[in-house]
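sry for the spam today, last one i promise. struct tokens for design, 486 residues
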């Protein structure tokens, strides 16, 4: 292997040459003597408890509290989550094979529903569900021996199960093999799940759960770590060039299977379905079934923002299954050059497309003030514009122009309206830099376009001017129409 291509030889052996099965047999783990006792360290996503360094099995005491709490599902969208530990997904639990776990499930007295827990790491009826049905204000205790190493999902199994899981009741438990896992610089916890609200995607306010939609398997949101944007912007995962990263990826469901992919990054090692017995290497996309898990390991070679998605891409860019990993450090032009040339290619018959579809547009309420228009526009931006132009309005170099301090936008409000309504397919210069992409026309309402443009003008050192629905209606351009010079 070329020096420096992966880091130290130890890292290479640990992450790429790990072809043998990890862990002992069930019989050996059952017979493993218990030495001492400790209280489990539990963490909220995306954090992971520290690796286990002891060389013996012990008694691990786990206290997990069930809480029914109201929180944010998306911008302007509230939801009552049923949780293990107060957040979605539930707490990450880390133990070692051979450990004996004393599990306490505590149902907060303010809750309205009984709950239990099914840990896929348990060999026993219901994975513990049969022993843990717990009324509000009560606590259930049971124990189990960790016989199998791997990354396992846990979830509530109280009827109706799809409702309890669909409201956020899932998490992950890692049973480390006795040999431990190879050392990495970062470990993160990422869990996909689907939510079924009575209101349509983006419809604001407190949204009730829809049993009809969960039965029909028609989620309004498919997200990572419990909410749209939970792991983006200031909350993105972080690493440096040269760092090794391990992702513990789960799918709580209740229905949707994930095609987990890191845009611009190949997984050096994947443990499919969370099993330690047969790692695979050089993986582009890995399937994570509902109620299943996978472990993905890789080394960062170049800096940039890497997008983590469910590669069923409508879910990523329209329903929320998108996270970010921001990497800093020196560039390596041999590994990735960036854009070297920017040439015009315009075959005959090309034209701007309209971002249309069969999905019904939910009309925005009329803003009663500029401040309200800005607030409503923030929601439109998050749902339609942020994936390309980024949360900070900086865009993507050589691909999507910045909106922050944009001379193109600030120089001509009417031109901005025509660009959003009619689309744009021609070279343009923004803040002294050339771009030559396609801006699709959006079939948003006049109110939505006025709101989002007013929001953009209010942010990132832009002019602060307001756009009204009347102005949008007056200057709206039909998709594909040629703009005339004024």
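last one done:
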């Amino acid at each position: 292997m070329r020096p420096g291509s992966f880091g130290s030889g130890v890292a290479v052996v640990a992450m790429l040459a790990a072809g043998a099965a990890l862990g002992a047999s069930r019989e050996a783990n059952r017979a493993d003597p218990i030495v001492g006792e400790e209280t489990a360290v539990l963490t909220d996503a995306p954090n992971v408890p520290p690796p286990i360094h002891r060389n013996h099995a012990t008694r691990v005491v786990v206290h997990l509290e069930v809480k029914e709490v109201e929180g944010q599902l998306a911008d302007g969208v509230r939801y009552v989550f049923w949780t293990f530990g107060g957040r979605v997904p539930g707490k990450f639990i880390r133990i070692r094979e051979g450990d004996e776990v004393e599990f306490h499930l505590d149902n907060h007295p303010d809750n309205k529903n009984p709950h239990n827990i099914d840990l896929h790491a348990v060999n026993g009826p219901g994975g513990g569900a049969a022993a843990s049905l717990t009324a509000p204000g009560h606590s259930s205790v049971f124990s189990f021996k960790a016989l199998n190493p791997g990354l396992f999902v846990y979830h509530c199994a109280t009827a109706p199960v799809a409702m309890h899981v669909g409201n956020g009741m899932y998490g992950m438990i890692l049973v480390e093999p006795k040999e431990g896992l190879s050392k990495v610089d970062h470990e993160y916890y990422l869990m996909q799940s689907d939510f079924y609200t009575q209101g349509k995607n983006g419809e604001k306010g407190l949204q009730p759960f829809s049993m009809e939609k969960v039965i029909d398997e028609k989620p309004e949101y498919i997200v990572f770590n419990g909410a749209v944007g939970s792991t983006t912007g200031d909350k993105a995962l972080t690493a440096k060039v040269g760092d090794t990263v391990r992702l513990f990826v789960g799918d709580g469901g209740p229905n949707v299977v994930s095609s987990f992919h890191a845009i611009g990054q190949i997984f050096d090692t994947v443990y499919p379905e969370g099993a330690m017995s047969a790692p695979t290497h050089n993986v582009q996309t890995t399937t994570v079934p509902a109620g299943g898990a996978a472990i993905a390991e890789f080394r960062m070679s170049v800096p940039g923002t890497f997008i983590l998605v469910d590669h069923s891409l409508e879910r990523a860019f329209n329903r929320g299954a998108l996270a970010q990993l921001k990497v800093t450090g020196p560039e390596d032009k041999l590994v990735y050059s960036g854009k070297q040339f920017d040439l015009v290619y315009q075959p005959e018959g090309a034209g701007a497309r309209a971002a249309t579809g069969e999905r019904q547009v939910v009309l925005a309420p009329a803003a009663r003030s500029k401040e309200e228009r800005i607030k409503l526009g923030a929601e439109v931006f998050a749902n339609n514009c942020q994936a390309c132009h980024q949360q900070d309005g900086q865009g993507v170099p050589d691909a999507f122009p910045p909106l922050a301090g944009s001379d193109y936008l600030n120089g001509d409000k009417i031109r901005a309206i025509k660009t959003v309504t009619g689309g744009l397919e021609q070279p343009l210069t923004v803040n002294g830099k050339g771009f030559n992409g396609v801006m699709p026309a959006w079939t948003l309402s006049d109110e939505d376009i006025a709101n989002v443009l007013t929001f953009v003008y209010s942010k990132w050192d832009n002019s602060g001017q307001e756009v009204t629905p009347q102005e949008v209606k007056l200057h709206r351009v039909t998709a594909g129409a040629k703009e005339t010079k004024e």
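Residues 309 and 322 are 5 Å apart (CA to CA). ok im logging off now
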